[in-house]
Design goal:
The protein is about 45% helix and about 15% strand. By secondary structure, it is of the alpha+beta class. The protein has a ten-stranded mixed beta sheet with strand order 10-9-20-19-18-13-17-16-14-15. Strands 1-2-4-3 form a four-stranded antiparallel beta sheet. A four-stranded antiparallel beta sheet has the order 5-6-8-7, with helices on one face. The longest helix has 27 residues. The protein is elongated and about 150 Å long.
Length: about 775
């Protein structure tokens, strides 16, 4: 230490302080001066002594100027000097300001005197001149005092890493080791990794195991991991302390363990709803739980949806979805709320075909696009079935498909047996629109005629399959409200119904090979009504079956016909979010049942025997039509048949329309039609060979014979067998009669009225409303 550095310290320490007596006397004098100044400030502004005015204001201005100069200086110790200067200047500035304000105000008011007295009294109590010396010495010594209070610096660093290193060094369990290379994973989480360093030439003690490290940082032992440092010896040990990660893992594992226990107890146990079906994987998402399940060896997976929802404790079975591969693997998804409650409107890009001939008609329950093939590059044209009650969204689905056909250059032919009321948007926006029962049948006949024309050309050229656009466009016939034309209880003559059903059945043989597809839609469909039901069933499994909201018996019937049976198809309710328990609570409380958003457009899509829940793109109705769907149709040019095909279609339609009207008027299909017009077969020759299929000759089926046998009243099963000719030459087998009775019972045409006794069932008004 040099003399230069010692001298200031000595001078500071030896500065003589005021004695208590001197400080007391100085304070008394100062208070007297403040009292006199206060009196002068109260009286002076009301006098005309300008010298007093100038002195009062001048002193204040001088003190303020001195204070400003001191504030701008940056010399050593300026902070303490500024503090004491401000303290000493307060009385002078206060009294000078009060004097100036009183001088500027005319007259004398009470507040002028009160202000002067208040400033003088406060100054007398504070005595700034006397006490400023002690204040300045305290301010000058403050840095040294603070420096003495600062902790001694160490080599552990700063921040979170330094705190951890100091905490490690302070623990007796760590010995002479150090915690180095600390890396915090995230500023908001306590998880970190580091390296434990032993003294040079020493190994990290074996006592520093996960238990000891967990005790140092007071974390669960499972949150600590130790591992060797690659490329180094036992003098370095890598340590990871992750309590936040452990807690998150523990919180995630808890519900997973509970779910596994629930599955084992209620589902896969011998008394569960699906014995032996194992839970092989799970995933927790924000709005759903996804389970991967597998059937036992050598068994097919079968997951009954309603019992499964009950076993898993779900009040609303609509929140549980099941999909399988048709064999042993399956995915079960549990949602927090119904995933199809909200969908957007379709765009032209949604309706563009991909390389597989598919378009996106909406969304699946898991958010993936619901794909609908307009045709199959390998098979050709397809057969589709759509079934849905009024308000189920069937019309919106059909219009979406028709818009997609026009966008993709497909020839759209549409019929609406409800006189055009089901699909009015299609009128004038497709190649042909047949409105009415006779017009629908004539359109089907004309479509059949075009298919026959294509078949003749294909046969002449040796073509055995259809290639899109070479030379013909894909053509699809959409027949809506088909149940009004072919159902046994529709009230139309049997020759007419047989003619329509016969054309549909015959078209299943060759239409797909010439690029002619058909889409059959109705409020209720029984495949037995569709002529050759086996061919329609087989072809529909290659296409798409859309099963919207219908009654439960129709759901069971279509599920039996079109699926592999590995997934249970349950009826779709009218509203979202209205569970059976909610309706039960309303019934118990005597309140009205709750309602929610409508499920219109929600349906089971069945493709290749596999069903899944989907919903068609949203459509908004305005003025009784769907302007959004109309805009989609009109976004592309109208698509026509080739001139030769269009000529065949028009000629066949005109001829078939006369035949359809005649059949509806009671003509049996033989000889001349009413009005004197004969069929081409009866007339012998025509200007051009007719391509309109003739009405089929009446053929009695076993179904007809059973119904006729029961026309006179109930019969026992053995009596029905005897009546239809079981046991006679060429008669049916007993098993065929039993199967026919079962199918008629499912269709609601007969019922069991006793043990082995059957009777015909007349359709009720309620059944008519549903159909």
């Amino acid at each position: 230490m040099t003399a230069e550095t010692v001298a200031p310290a000595v001078a500071t320490e030896t500065r003589p302080p005021l004695s208590s007596t001197a400080a007391r006397h100085l304070a008394t004098v100062e208070r007297i001066a403040y009292g006199a100044a206060g009196l002068a400030t109260a009286v002076g502004p009301s006098t005309d002594v300008w010298q007093m005015h100038a002195a009062a204001l001048g002193v204040g201005a001088g003190v303020l100027c001195r204070l400003w100069t001191r504030a701008r200086s940056r010399e050593e110790g300026w902070g303490a000097a500024l503090l004491t200067a401000s303290y000493k200047a307060l009385p002078v500035l206060g009294l000078s300001t009060a004097y100036g304000v009183s001088l500027a105000t005319s007259g004398t008011t009470w507040w002028e005197v009160a202000a002067s007295v208040a400033v003088a009294a406060a100054s007398a109590v504070a005595v700034p001149l006397t006490r400023s010396r002690g204040l300045r010495r305290a301010a000058e010594n403050l840095p040294a005092v603070l420096a003495d209070q600062e902790p001694a610096e160490d080599d552990h660093g700063t921040g979170y890493a330094g705190d951890l290193a100091r905490h490690w060094a302070a623990s007796p369990a760590t010995g002479t080791t150090r915690l180095a290379h600390v890396t915090q994973y995230h500023p908001g989480r306590p998880d970190f990794e580091a390296v434990i360093l032993a003294q040079p030439g020493e190994a990290v003690p074996g006592s520093l195991d996960p238990r000891a490290v967990a005790a140092v940082f007071d974390v669960p032992m499972e949150a600590v991991r130790l591992a060797p440092v690659p490329g180094h010896g036992p003098g370095r040990i890598a340590v990871q302390v992750a309590p936040a990660e452990f807690l998150a893992r523990q919180q995630h594992q808890a519900p997973a363990d509970q779910l596994t226990a629930l599955w084992d107890a209620r589902v896969s146990s011998p008394k569960g709803v699906a014995p032996g079906v194992e839970l092989v994987g799970h995933r927790f998402d924000a709005d759903r739980i996804v389970l991967r399940v597998e059937a036992p060896d050598s068994e097919l997976l079968h997951l009954p949806r309603l019992p499964l929802a009950r076993a898993l404790g779900l009040e609303d079975p609509e929140l549980l979805m099941v999909e399988t591969d048709g064999m042993a693997q399956g995915v079960v998804t549990i949602y927090a709320e119904h995933p199809l409650m909200t969908v957007r409107e379709a765009t032209p890009d949604d309706l563009l075909m991909d390389k597989h001939g598919r378009i996106a008609t909406g969304l699946r329950h898991d958010g993936r696009p619901a794909r609908w093939p307009l045709y199959d590059p390998e098979l050709g044209a397809l057969t589709d079935l759509l079934v849905g009650a009024p308000g189920s969204g069937k019309s919106v689905t059909l219009l979406t498909l028709i818009a997609a056909e026009r966008i993709n250059g497909v020839v759209s032919v549409v019929t609406d047996a409800q006189d055009g009321m089901s699909l009015p948007e299609a009128d004038g926006r497709v190649f042909h629109f047949g409105a009415g029962q006779a017009e629908s049948a004539a359109t089907l006949a004309a479509f059949t005629a075009v298919a026959d024309y294509r078949q003749e050309v294909s046969a002449a050229n040796g073509w055995g399959s259809f290639i899109l656009g070479q030379p013909w466009r894909l053509a699809i016939l959409t027949m809506d409200e088909i149940n009004r034309m072919i159902a046994e209880d529709c009230g139309l003559p049997k020759p007419f119904r047989g003619w329509v059903a016969g054309m549909l059945g015959a078209g299943q043989i060759t239409w797909r090979k010439v690029g002619m597809g058909v889409r059959i839609a109705g409020q209720s469909l029984h495949l037995e009504d569709l002529g050759d039901s086996e061919k329609i069933r087989a072809n529909a499994k290659q296409g798409t079956t859309w099963l919207g909201r219908v009654n439960s018996s129709m759901t069971r019937s279509m599920a039996t016909d079109m699926t592999t049976g590995t997934v249970e198809i349950t009826p779709i309710k009218k509203y979202f979010g209205v569970s059976g328990s909610a309706e039960l609570e309303a019934a118990w409380a005597g309140e009205e049942a709750p309602t929610g958003p409508t499920t219109a457009g929600t349906a089971w899509m069945i493709q290749s025997g596999q069903p899944y829940m989907s919903r068609v793109w949203r459509a908004v109705k305005e003025n009784r039509t769907y302007p959004g769907l109309i805009a989609l149709m009109e976004s592309a040019p109208l698509v026509d048949f080739t001139p030769a095909e269009a000529d065949v279609f028009r000629r066949a339609y005109d001829e078939a329309l006369l035949m359809a009207v005649a059949l509806l008027d009671g003509w049996d299909g033989k000889g001349e039609m009413p009005g004197g017009t004969a069929t081409s077969e009866a007339a012998g020759t025509t200007a051009a060979p007719s391509r309109v299929p003739a009405p089929p000759a009446p053929v009695r089926s076993l179904r007809d014979d059973v119904l006729d046998a029961l026309a006179d009243g109930p019969l026992r099963t053995r009596e029905i067998r005897q009546a239809v000719g079981v046991g006679t030459e060429g008669g049916p087998a007993s098993g065929s009669v039993d199967n026919t009775l079962s199918k008629l019972a499912e269709a609601g045409l007969v019922s069991r009225v006793g043990h082995g006794v059957w009777a015909r069932t007349e359709p009720s008004d309620e059944a008519d409303d549903q159909s």
